[in-house]
Design brief:
Layout: E1 7-12, H1 20-32, E2 38-43, H2 45-48, H3 55-72, E3 79-83, H4 89-98, H5 103-107, H6 110-117, H7 124-139, E4 144-146, H8 152-169, E5 177-179, H9 214-222, H10 239-252, H11 256-263, H12 268-294, H13 297-326
Parallel strand pairs: 1-2, 2-3, 4-5
Helix pairs in contact: 3-12, 4-7, 4-13, 7-8, 9-12, 10-12
The structure holds adenosine-5'-tetraphosphate (AQP).
Adenosine-5'-tetraphosphate binds near residues 150, 151, 196, 199 and 200.
């Protein structure tokens, strides 16, 4: 009899142009370990509407993200790929968890503080973002959550919520663990290596977009902010060079010592040129596959409907357990 593989759940918001941080912090790891786990990967559109979205663009971004998941190597035979809003249990359990979450826990979240500072009107959904994320994870009894480093605090909150719920209402949820890789877990902006590379920052030269023009990307890498030094080494006190080296390390999968030896005596220009080559070698085939997958929107929709059906079968059972526990059934 085959052993049950540990389950993972993760997702990305269809909120704009995905960048190499999303790929190296999340997607690439999902793909590399697809055979080790029982995988659930969603497109978290309910999270995207925690800040204002244009409805037509949002619909478009959902399809684009589905195409990108496939282009990066997620396989619908080996992973359940679905859209969050297609499985109503996410919103339903999200509400139950909202009613179990002390307000102070949410006010402490650093992502809320960062994102709310950029909004003219802060929507209640933005504050409640982490309870919806907790529902995403807990619905699937996920043991592991593969994400970038910026999501660590949200997973801690998910664990606290699940433990509190289990204590108050009896064993209901599996307590998940974050799965955060050590290399390139927080990719920084090319224009400012002290701030996280981010979809919502659309300034030219900030991000390396997965679907961007590769000539422009090369130029942005060549102009990336570094420092006045010359040595190419993994030194965190020089965040610009450290960031470029970390991206290079994750893309080439080489040990640090080998990379430092390779660049010994070379200038920053060489590092940037070779990084641009590595980025191009990774993104060119992804972009080609993306064009193929998005050529057939009906097939994409069929795959997403199939994924939602598989996801709902698991999620509804957990929602029912939680509803019963709090007295809703
Ligand atoms: N810069 C990053 N480095 C490493 N991992 C990152 N992730 C995001 N930015 C980086 C990881 O990508 C996954 C999807 O994130 P999301 O869609 O929830 O977006 P986010 O974390 O809010 O960050 P974005 O993509 O830059 O969007 P905005 O601009 O809206 O904040 C997560 O696993 C995240 O850790």
């Amino acid at each position: 009899m085959s052993e049950r593989r540990p389950r993972v759940l993760s997702g990305i918001q269809p909120s704009g142009n995905l960048h190499i941080g999303n790929y190296l912090g999340s997607l690439q790891n999902w793909v590399l370990e697809q055979d080790r786990y029982d995988n659930f990967f969603c497109i978290v559109d309910l999270h995207a509407i925690t800040v204002p979205q244009d409805p037509a663009e949002l619909r478009q971004h959902v399809r684009e993200l589905a195409g990108l998941y496939l282009a990066c190597g997620l396989d619908p035979q080996r992973s359940t790929i679905f859209v969050q809003s297609h499985v109503s249990a996410h919103a339903e359990l999200g509400w139950v968890l909202n009613c179990q979450t002390p307000l102070g826990w949410l006010n402490r979240m650093t992502q809320f503080k960062d994102k709310s500072a950029k909004q003219e009107t802060v929507l209640a959904g933005l504050l409640n973002y982490p309870t919806l994320m907790a529902a995403d994870i807990l619905l699937y009894d996920a043991e592991f959550v593969p994400v970038g480093d910026d999501q660590r605090q949200h997973i801690e909150l998910t664990r606290d919520l699940a433990e509190r719920f289990n204590y108050l209402y009896g064993e209901t949820f599996v307590i998940p663990e974050p799965m955060i890789r050590t290399v390139a877990a927080r990719v920084m902006g090319l224009d400012d290596p002290t701030s996280k590379m981010s979809k919502s920052n659309t300034a030219a030269g900030h991000a390396i977009p997965l679907l961007g023009d590769l000539k422009k990307t090369r130029k942005a890498i060549m102009r990336a902010v570094t420092d006045s030094g010359t040595e190419i080494a993994f030194d965190e006190s020089r965040p610009g060079v450290y960031n470029l080296l970390s991206i290079y390390q994750k893309l080439t999968d080489k040990p640090r010592e080998e990379i430092e030896a390779h660049f010994a005596g070379q200038g920053y220009g060489t590092l940037k040129r070779e990084l641009a080559d590595a980025v191009e070698a990774t993104l060119e085939p992804i972009q080609a596959r993306y064009r193929e997958f998005t050529n057939d929107p009906a097939e994409l929709d069929r795959l997403l409907a199939q994924g939602a059906e598989r996801a709902a079968a698991v999620a509804n059972a957990t929602r029912d357990r939680a509803y019963t526990a709090v007295g809703l059934r």
